[in-house]
């Protein structure tokens, strides 16, 4: 039986193509807002927060704009007014109906920010209506609780946002994203080995750095949500500052990297350190160099580092779905979770 999650993973090439077709014409609108601002504030929770981490690294590394992740409780619980003049506030919500995110975007506007919404909820969703500009993704309805296609299309929206803010990247790379994702769906790599390597483990560390950090966070979240693993998502810089002590034969590491970029060498060195200590290091992406020093590995996308996260999460999604089934868990409806989460 094919799960909803597996079907929605397969829908991602078409969803990405439709989203990019819809949003790339809005680059000029983003540019006009960007010209009125200096820095960015991302407002999100959960999976959307991981998409915002990608947006932050992308904007800082390639558009030269200082960016930060908002603490929505400052607006909703502490009700503290801040000076947000010159800030572009970007709120991210799959449904566009999470009250806390809508309220925080309203707060940002009242504090002087210009506002952008990234949502799959459509132009009539509360979040889209609250923003100066709505970047509406075209993922279609997502029925499985773990987000897959809504997450990757959020990353596509982040890429469009970065282009509008003057990112020094090749926009033509986006044309390659849907086909690169399809290739990973067709051949994710040694999926069975990773499933069996994690099936009897109580926890796992998932690590990446820079633009791949968002993928590490998102994969850790998926493994927690759908497989009930104690999965810790960390930058490998933070991992080396102490938490690496938890990595042993009962707690493997999943190491995530694009096939190029300045963080690849450090990821390879970390894989060597992990296996040298007798633990398993499972690679995701990183090309042949990471695969060569990993216990087993999943392929990454044939994309430059800036665009790679749009494909890099896909093998991790497939791993999560397959591992959940191996553990006898329904990945479509994890315990205790709903599709839309409301927080106070």
UniProtKB/TrEMBL annotation:
<protein>
    <submittedName>
        <fullName>Glutamine-fructose-6-phosphate transaminase</fullName>
    </submittedName>
</protein>
<dbReference type="InterPro" id="IPR035490">
    <property type="entry name" value="GlmS/FrlB_SIS"/>
</dbReference>
<dbReference type="InterPro" id="IPR001347">
    <property type="entry name" value="SIS_dom"/>
</dbReference>
<dbReference type="InterPro" id="IPR035466">
    <property type="entry name" value="GlmS/AgaS_SIS"/>
</dbReference>
<feature type="domain" description="SIS">
    <location>
        <begin position="194"/>
        <end position="334"/>
    </location>
</feature>
<dbReference type="GO" id="GO:0097367">
    <property type="term" value="F:carbohydrate derivative binding"/>
</dbReference>
<keyword id="KW-0677">Repeat</keyword>
<dbReference type="GO" id="GO:1901135">
    <property type="term" value="P:carbohydrate derivative metabolic process"/>
</dbReference>
<feature type="domain" description="SIS">
    <location>
        <begin position="29"/>
        <end position="171"/>
    </location>
</feature>
<dbReference type="InterPro" id="IPR046348">
    <property type="entry name" value="SIS_dom_sf"/>
</dbReference>
<dbReference type="Pfam" id="PF01380">
    <property type="entry name" value="SIS"/>
</dbReference>
């Amino acid at each position: 039986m094919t799960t909803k999650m597996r079907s929605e993973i397969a829908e991602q090439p078409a969803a990405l193509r439709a989203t990019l077709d819809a949003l790339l014409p809005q680059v000029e609108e983003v540019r006009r807002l960007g010209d009125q601002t200096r820095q960015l504030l991302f407002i999100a929770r959960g999976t959307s927060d991981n998409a915002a981490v990608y947006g932050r690294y992308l904007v800082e590394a390639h558009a030269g704009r200082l960016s930060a992740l908002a603490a929505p409780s400052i607006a909703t619980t502490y009700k503290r007014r801040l000076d947000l003049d010159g800030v572009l506030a970007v709120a991210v919500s799959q449904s566009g109906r999470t009250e806390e995110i809508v309220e925080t975007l309203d707060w940002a506007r009242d504090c002087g920010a210009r506002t952008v919404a990234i949502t799959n909820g459509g132009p009539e969703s509360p979040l889209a209506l609250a923003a100066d500009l709505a970047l509406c993704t075209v993922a279609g309805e997502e029925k499985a609780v773990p987000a897959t296609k809504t997450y990757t299309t959020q990353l596509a929206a982040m890429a469009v946002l970065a282009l509008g803010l003057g990112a020094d990247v090749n926009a033509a790379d986006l044309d390659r994203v849907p086909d690169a994702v399809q290739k990973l769906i067709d051949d994710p790599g040694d999926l069975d080995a990773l499933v069996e390597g994690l099936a009897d483990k109580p926890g796992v560390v998932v690590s990446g750095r820079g633009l791949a950090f968002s993928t590490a966070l998102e994969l850790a979240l998926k493994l927690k949500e759908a497989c009930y693993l104690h999965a810790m998502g960390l930058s490998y810089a933070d991992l080396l500052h102490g938490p690496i002590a938890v990595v042993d034969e009962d707690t493997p590491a999943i190491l995530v990297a694009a096939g190029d970029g300045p963080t690849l060498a450090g990821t390879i060195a970390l894989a060597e350190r992990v296996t040298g200590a007798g633990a398993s290091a499972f690679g995701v992406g990183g090309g042949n160099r990471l695969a060569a020093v990993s216990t087993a590995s999943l392929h990454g996308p044939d994309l430059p580092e800036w665009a790679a996260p749009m494909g890099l999460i896909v093998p991790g999604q497939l791993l999560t779905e397959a591992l959940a089934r191996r553990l006898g868990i329904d990945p479509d409806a994890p315990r205790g979770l709903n599709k839309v989460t409301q927080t106070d």
